[in-house]
Structure formats: C-alpha cells, structure tokens
Amino acid sequence: MFKRFILRSLFTVMLVAAGSYATQIVYVNETLNWSGGGTERFSPVGSTAGYADGQWYARVEVTSKPSAKLVALQLCFWQNGWSLETCSGCTGFTSTGVMYIDLGNPNGWWRLAGALDWSGGFTAVGFMLKDGSCQGRLMTAGACGAACYSGTDLSQHVPIVMKVKIILVSAGSTLQVPGDWTNCPWGSAPKVATPTITPNGGSFTDSVRVTLACATTGSQIYYTIDNSSPTNTKTLYSAPFKLTATTTIKARGILTNYTDSDTVKAAFVKGSTGAVIMPLYGAPDENRVTLRLSNSAISAAAPVFLLDPQAKSFNLRVFDMNGRTLYRSGNYGLVATGNNYIVSWDGRTQNKTCVDRGVYFVRCRFGNTTETRALVIRK
After folding, report:
1. Are 105 and 28 within one domain?
2. Is 186 part of any domain?
3. Is residue 187 assigned to a domain?
4. Are residues 292 and 255 in the same domain?
5. Residue 185 counted as domain residue
6. Which of 27, 135, 145, 221 has its CA 20 to 30 A from that of 245?
7. Same domain, 264 and 339
C-alpha cells in the first residue's frame, strides 16, 4: 500500500536464540529528521524476537518543529515485500518537548493482510508522520497520490527533528525506566548498584586505607562513620580515606531519577593482636578452644574474628606450622549470643588425637570473607 513513498532499503533484524530473551531491550535509539518524506525508517539496535507478547514504550523528544500545526506519529512494520503491514495507534502533537508513548502490545495493532512474523525479516520499520490523526494524510509531497498531504502549508508541518528511544518489555515484566526518562508515567525507576568497600572490614594495627566504588555511572556515594544511615546529607565520597580507630562504615549510592542503592557496611577493628592464646588441659571435654566472632568491636585481648555482616554460615580449619590441615569443620549456621557468635574446637585432630602444645593457625570463613589467626596452645 505504501511502497511508493518508502524509499529506504531492506535491512535485517538480528535474531536471538529462543529462550534467551532479556526482560527488556532498547529497540531503537536515534535521531529522526523529517525534511519532506512521510515516513522515516530507523535502524533498530535490538530485535523484536520474543517481545511480540510484551509491552512496548517510546520516549520521543521533539527538538525542532516549524509551527503549532497538529501532526500525528505512527509506528509501522512491513514484511513479505510490502504485502504485510501492521501499525500502532497514533500520537498527535503540536509543539516541541518530550512525549512518552505507550505503544501497547503489537499483536493488538492494526493489520493489513495478516499477522507479521515478529522473529524478524522486516522489509522496513519506521514512523509515519500524518496530518492530524491516523486518518490523515502523510506529511510529504512525494509520489504517493491521494495518500499525500495536499495542502499548501506543508512547510508549516515539516521539517521536524526528534530523538526516539523505543523499549520492548517481555510479557509479564515491568518496565525498568531508564535514568534519562524523567517523569515517565509507568514502570519502576532503575536502582543504583550497591557500592563496594575495599577492604571489606577487618582488623588493623595502626591505620587502614579505605576505598569506596559504585558500578552505576554518574552515581554519588554518601557514607557515614558514626553508624547512622547514609543519605545525601551525609559525607560525599571523593577519594580514598584513612581510618585510625575502630569504625563501622556505611555507604549508599545515589543518582537522580534512580532508586537509591542498598546500604553496604563494613566494620574495622583497631588493635587486634592477631593471636589467640588459650590453654588446653584437663579432661578431653575441657580441651576446648573457644572463638568469638563479632559484628562489633570488642576487646583486642579476646579471641576475635571480625564477622562479615552478610554471612549466614561459617566453617573452620586448623593448620600446623607446616600448613597441614589438622581439623576441618563442616559448614554451620551461625547462632547468635548477644552481639557475638560462638564457635569452638576441642583441641583434637580430625582423627580425634589431642594436639601438642605449640603454635597453630585457625582460619574461619564467613560467606565471602576469610580470616586467619595464630593460635598458641599451652599445656
């Protein structure tokens, strides 16, 4: 039907393997310029495969328009030459500015001569610019006969320049609104990635240098060292900093038009001796080394392992001076006692033999965190 005035060449849409579709993709992201043609074809950066049953959305920013004349925008696809055609509803506009368009589900669009195969292979894809409504004529003086605009004021309708981004959302999913879609009426705002704290807590002797980072481009990290919640009224991170005292750091990533990140925290303890000195004596049941894991600073003289706050379980190993494993625990859930967690080793090897006095090493692993302490056993 519209073959005569669509003057762009055939293009190929990339196919995606079945079952590998993302929750949403950017299908189109480019600037279109109507200088006198009724249809502007664009070059998709994604594929429609897997999204025909989902919901499609567009952000259109009209940056240049010659007058306040009403024109209408309509998204159309052609396939099998030009014999199959389907188009969305129309959106009318009179001025420059930003429009958010809910294009709906393409299976519900107007069709000519049957349904399209949305896996790809389109003859052309583009926006048609019409006079006033979907029933209006194309804003062109080209060779399209009665379908072309016949008025003498075409120059008051075009040229029009606009930036277009179209997002396809899979069936059953919710639009994750891009950060630049300010005041978008649907979907949910994207979330800033949780910042990282390096090192992720632990003990230190004199001082420790701490670095914060966030994977979300443009985000700012706010942090606290007084155990309060980090907000945009707290300290803005700008460079690595030094700690010289026991401190708990909390950090959060913030970016305009994004949901704030989750809060991350790390505890740093100054003054740990790095050694656990405990006597082993008496009956076998008394030959027990008790280790305390803590989420907060406690006495440096105590047998302390600083606990990863995210840890839900732990395992423990004991090595001799030659690096041989003497004892290995299973992976156990942590049971709190106040603000501490208590684990123990009975001073025996995996074969139930009592160890001699001397220096050993105890390694505890909590989630992704591993810490090792020297253990001096006296009998």
Report:
1. yes
2. no
3. no
4. no
5. no
6. 221
7. no
pLDDT(166) > 50: yes
State pLDDT tens for residues 94-153: 889 999 999 989 888 888 888 888 887 888 888 888 887 677 777 776 667 777 777 788
pLDDT band of 275, cuts 50, 70, 90:
very low
Of the listed ranges 51-60, 333-342, 361-370, the one predicted with least confidence: 333-342
Asked if residues 290 and 278 have their Cβ atoms less than 8 Å apart, the reply is yes
- The count of structural domains within the chain is 3
- The residue behind tokens 């502007």 is 40
Asked if residue 178 is part of any domain, the answer here is no
Asked if residue 145 and residue 63 are part of one domain, the reply reads yes
Q: Do residues 232 and 96 both lie within one domain?
A: no
- Provide φ and ψ at 156, rounded to 5°: -90, -10
The residue out of 270, 290, 323 marking a domain boundary is: 270
Which of the two residues, 151 and 211, has the higher pLDDT score?
Answer: 211
Domain holding 145, by residue range, is 3-169
b/e per residue 297-315 (b: at least 16 CB within 10 A): bbeeeebbbbbbbebeebe
Higher-confidence residue of 252 and 334: namely 252
- Name the token pair of 105: 């589900």
